[in-house]
């Protein structure tokens, strides 16, 4: 009787190793595990609940077959040259017999990944784009035919010597591949507005469009506006960029030469520093107590050096 009980225990079939959720690129080959212990019934794989065959060659599927040692209970499902139609939920099972109950593995989802096209601007733009400081600027970027959808972010990038600086536009930054931005100065300009929309194609891929609206400042002149796309299939983030040529009105700084003190009855030299783009339209005018000073006044000496404008008042000015 004891021998009969031992034999009964040994005959209980089970899935010793089952498949797990798997993601793989389209066109690649994957193997879903199934190892049976104490096999008594017939092993069969199902795809979305439907059986795909009981023989190891799986003749109804040209790119499916079973591999491994049958003597060791190995019925691993190998799928070659993955296509979108191979994305499904798979399960390994062993049929019931008069001595053993049905044995089922957990369900495992096979996800097919498709590398999207490199990001690109939706509108045709030149390598250098002219913008005006203080005014909204709109631009769109897209990533097409990816699965799942790509992640798109915007940033301003500049490099001065060995120092790299990233200014993220909007309230999102990359985290998955953050190491790519290590040893860089980073900041966020949250007032920039980013609107994203995604659509699914007939063959199950995704198109993503990101629309950016931001207001540039004079300091953005010469920086690169970057549309950055990331995806599970990318080894690194892919960029597309334009260089910003920012026009801005004069920025004026008035100071006293050499930080000297004004002393009643003595001459004084004032320095006017002005910066604008384009600079060729920059003109200087001096006012005192709301009255414009005539340059031809013999009591006023004027010097002009690039963006520096010096004016010296004599005692009688």
UniProtKB/TrEMBL annotation:
It comes from the Eukaryota. CDD domains: Ig (cd00096). One of its GO terms (biological process) is cell-cell adhesion. InterPro entries: Cell_adhesion_signaling, Ig-like_dom, Ig-like_dom_sf, Ig-like_fold, Ig_I-set, Ig_sub. Pfam families: I-set (PF07679). It is found in: Membrane. This is Ig-like domain-containing protein. Gene3D superfamilies: Immunoglobulins (2.60.40.10). Keywords: Coiled coil, Disulfide bond, Glycoprotein, Immunoglobulin domain, Membrane. It is a single-pass type I membrane protein. Residues 171-198 form a coiled coil. GO terms for molecular function: cell adhesion molecule binding. Its main location: membrane. One of its GO terms (cellular component) is plasma membrane. PROSITE patterns: IG_LIKE (PS50835). Residues 13-111, 119-243, 249-317 form the Ig-like domain.
